[in-house]
Amino acid sequence: MMLEDEIFRKYTVDWNLLVSYGFIKEEKGYRYVTNQVPGFKMIVFVFKDGHVKGTIWDTALDEEYVNYRIESQNGTFVSEIREAYIALLKDIRVHCFKETPFVSKQANRIAQKILEGYQVSPEFLWKRDPLSGVFRHPKNGKWFGIIQHIKADKLKNKAQGFIDILNVKLDEQCAAKIVEPGFYPAYHMNKKSWISVCLDDTVSDEVVMDVIRQSYIINSPDPYWLIPANANYYDMIHIFDDTDITLWKQSVPMYENDIVFLYVSSPYSSIFYQCEIVEANLDHVFENENIHMQKAMRLKLKKRYDISEFALERLKEYGIKSVRGPRHVPKALVKLLEE
Question: Can you tell me the distance from the alpha carbon of 32 to that of 24, in angstroms, rounded to the nearest whole number?
């Protein structure tokens, strides 16, 4: 990798700052020239696509000096030239560039769109792989996207250089997507559930964001809960007579906007209410001989059911044999409860 590519790998140019630094605008970009090392002229060029290229010119010999690019050349003189050039590039980076999370323009655009749409920023989890960023679902921490910087030939046969890719989970949709340009069997992930997308503008941002949306949904926690209420401890008949809000014990991870169906125990053994969680994970310590509470949530009444409508005998038809603690609700039953 060229020195310039390494130093500016995760940076994008701020064009407004180049001129103030001393760059001269030309047809193909911006040029900066300095004679800070006696006998040598250092030239840095920023092309219109943001790519940076540099040369060092030996003014005495009137030819390009290249020894500083040869790693095996480590004598005192060449090392001084190399260090001075690297220091110049880093100074330009500080004053004219801004850091970005990823290498490619499309990867950075997609990261910004994910932030705007889902309020999720990438997490860089591996010191040995600082260019791989994971996007986690805010409710359960599951990965719904991973952007990685890999050798291009890992996906494209005989391709040169490096590329940014996005891994998303599409489950059974993988087979259909894999035939489309820019989509490949997942790199370093389960190929039955995940797929890789090249972030080299082969696939439009709109299509990339659509597969991200699908992956986000697939990785979302089930928002429908069936929670038991002991009729001996709570007045479940009148609990919502004077208000549509109640404070309720929360014993498992749940989130705002999740839907809770309150199942009242014997002698009723039936679902009484449908509620929405309006606040979750509240610190609320309460104890008596029957109730032990550390966390609570606020439930807002959405719907009442006839006491006999969703009794346990009917729930058994959907695989619910008992309700001893919070549990998810089968989709077929949710459909009925929502009608």
Answer: 6
